[in-house]
Amino acid sequence: MKNSMVQVPGADGKRVLDSYFVKPEGDGPFPAVLVIHEVFGLNDNIRGIADQFAAEGFAALAVDLFANRPRPYCLMQAFHGLMFKPLDNPMLADLRGTVTFLATLPGVDPKRIGAVGFCMGGGYALQLAFTESGLKAASSFYGSAPKPLAVMASACPMMGSYPEKDFTTQSARELEAALVERDVAHDFKYYANTAHSFFNRPRSEFEVEASKDSWQRMLAFFAQHIA
């Protein structure tokens, strides 16, 4: 694998998002995945997930949405965008610009790009699924679904992996019902005996198995819709 730090232009045209890019050996072009972090930012865990995608034949860009700004401000902006202005907020604008940037990177096939996010990032991955026409599929791990669900008709295929009982699960069930109604390709699963962040921090054998199963489901879903 080849990895490097890249500077993604922010949507405001003033700052850059120092982000982690990794791709398989060779020239490609490779299908690509945008990896969107939790509230903990771009850390070793998220970089490791990007590396796992590269090992499976994907180019992966793990964006740092908190780069070059105070973390408290970033968190306030992130949750305001999730709760009060889904589908139209500064962080989503940064992510849409990041998808455009990812399409220009060496070895990336610009027609085969997906996104995955975790918790906060999962909510933003779903926002991208509604708003970014260049996205072929999106995967959310315990991310809150944006409203209104009426915009589903134009959404790309989506998958979701959620604890059976979690503060994000009800919105995921509502989203899944809307996807069924509008005949949008999807794969949602709710894991018993698991808690929030089971993929990033498995704490029991149930969560270890849920982490493994959700990863394999995601690879299969992305193989179908992206790769």
How does the helix and strand content classify structurally?
Answer: alpha/beta
Shape: globular
Largest sheet: 8 strands, mixed
Return the average pLDDT rounded to an integer.
93
Order of helices and strands: EEEHEHHEHEEHEH
| Helix residue percentage | 25-40%
Q: Any low-confidence stretches, pLDDT <50, length ≥5?
A: none
How much of the sequence lies in strands comes to: 15-25%
How many helix segments?
6
| Total beta-strand segments | 8
Gap between N and C termini, in Å? 18 Å
Sheet with most strands: strand arrangement: 1-2-4-3-5-6-7-8
Explain this structure to me?
The protein has an eight-stranded mixed beta sheet, with helices on both faces. The two termini are 18 Å apart. The chain has 227 residues and is of the alpha/beta class. Strand 7, helix 5 (169-181) and strand 8 form a beta-alpha-beta unit. 37% of the residues lie in helices and 25% in strands.
Characteristic terms for this protein:
227 residues, alpha/beta, 8-stranded mixed β-sheet, 8 strands, globular
Short summary:
It contains 6 helices and 8 strands; from the N terminus they run βββαβααβαββαβα.
Task: Lay out the secondary structure.
Blueprint: E1 2-9, E2 16-23, E3 30-36, H1 44-55, E4 59-63, H2 71-83, H3 90-102, E5 108-118, H4 120-131, E6 137-141, E7 158-163, H5 169-181, E8 186-191, H6 205-225
Parallel strand pairs: 3-4, 3-5, 5-6, 6-7, 7-8
Antiparallel strand pairs: 1-2, 2-4
Helix pairs in contact: 3-4
